[in-house]
Fold this sequence. Notes:
With 398 residues, this protein is α+β, with helices and mostly antiparallel strands. It has 2 domains: 5-145, DNA methylase specificity domains (Adenine-n6-DNA-methyltransferase TaqI, Chain A, domain 2); 177-355, Adenine-n6-DNA-methyltransferase TaqI, Chain A, domain 2, CATH 3.90.220.20. Helix content is 34%, strand content 22%. It has helices spanning 8-11, 57-62, 111-118, 121-130, 141-146, 154-193, 314-322, 324-329, 342-347, 355-394, and strands at 5-7, 12-16, 34-37, 42-43, 46-47, 53-55, 67-68, 73-76, 84-86, 94-96, 100-105, 148-150, 204-207, 212-216, 232-236, 252-255, 272-275, 280-281, 284-285, 287-289, 297-299, 303-308, 333-334, 338-339, 349-352. Strands 2-11-8-9 form a 4-stranded antiparallel beta sheet. A 4-stranded mixed beta sheet has the order 6-3-10-7. Helix 6 runs antiparallel to helix 10. The longest helix is centred in the middle third of the chain and has 40 residues, at 154-193. The protein starts with a strand and ends with a helix. Its EC number is 3.1.21.-. Keywords: DNA-binding, Endonuclease, Hydrolase, Nuclease, Restriction system. InterPro entries: Restrct_endonuc_typeI_TRD, Restrct_endonuc_typeI_TRD_sf, Type-I_RS_S_subunit. It is an enzyme of class 3 (hydrolase).
Amino acid sequence: MSWPVVKLSDVAELINGDRSSNYPSGEEIVEEGILFLSTKNIVENKIDLSQKNFITKEKFNSLGRGKLLKNDLIITLRGTLGSCCIFNTEFDTGFINAQMMIIRCKDEVFNRYLHYYLTSLRVNCEFQRANTGSAVPQLTGRQLAELEIPLPLLDEQKRIAAILDKADAIRRKRQQAIQLADDFLRSVFLDIFGDPVTNPKGFKKAAITELSDVITGYAFKSAEYVQDSENSVRLCRGANTLTGYFEWKDTAYWDRGKLKGIENYIINSGDVILAMDRPWISSGLKVCIFPENQRTTYLVQRVARIRPKQTIYTDYLYSCILSSAFEKHCCPTETTVPHISPVELKNFEVLVPDKKLVQKYHDVVFKVRSSMLAMEKSLLEANSAFNSLSQKAFAGEI
């Protein structure tokens, strides 16, 4: 099916955040008022308000650009390129920082259709290619304005969005099922070991490095990434490390011929993998256990690998990282993106209980994990089905 192809700037108004000298400074952030969004509030293409900042109504009224209306799209220009969400919170308006852009749809385009297109695998690849190559990945307003959009009639856009809504709901239910299983294991952990913060059972404490080897990844140069082939290995980045599972939709690869001297960065099954940048999102902490029977994968910088010295400690250490004690210990630095430092991670103290208790916990987790593996497989299939359906939808094949 042949649809008109238009530029994004033809069907939407693109609005930058206010970059003037009147831009809100740190001391102008208040506890209540008008919502002030930053890139940390866009997670997995949804609005995440677990951390909220506000500016006063007076300050908001004094600003020029960057003011949100209900159902506007918001897209990130720096950091995680092209993360996109719809502004449909309980707040009637808000303000974006200068690292994002508002996309305000004109009458001929349906915002949910455009949202699905902007978050599709195809467009994500375009954004990666369009990256300016600076130290912090970024897009420009001009690159967005020139982005081409297939545009069927409005009713057809709504029909496609409704189909993708249903497919998206299925994969989110899979994610919720995994989260419930994680919550159950967290309650078992507390029952056996007690709260790591208060340590009611009086266990000895030691740095996590006493029970594991901790490293952060290698600085693979993005300019030297290669296409996937028999001669490449997979790279695990922060974008691939989510809350309890890995997402390989946006995957980078490295030439096997360039691995000499960096063999220590390979990831083994049972390794605990932690994203160090933007570690906490609305669905939890971005940490996973690397599963069995995976292709050769190497660790990239700003991602940590926690390798237990004994295999029975894998599930225990994973749960320690997920505990409130770890969140209390870490104070993510507010640079371009919130960040956990390697020093903080290595200095994190864990309880050192009797091995019999660790074995008991491991046995419970082993039983539950067989069900979780089926859930994770189902999630991967749901993600794959969604991506395939999305590709067909924008090609006019559904």
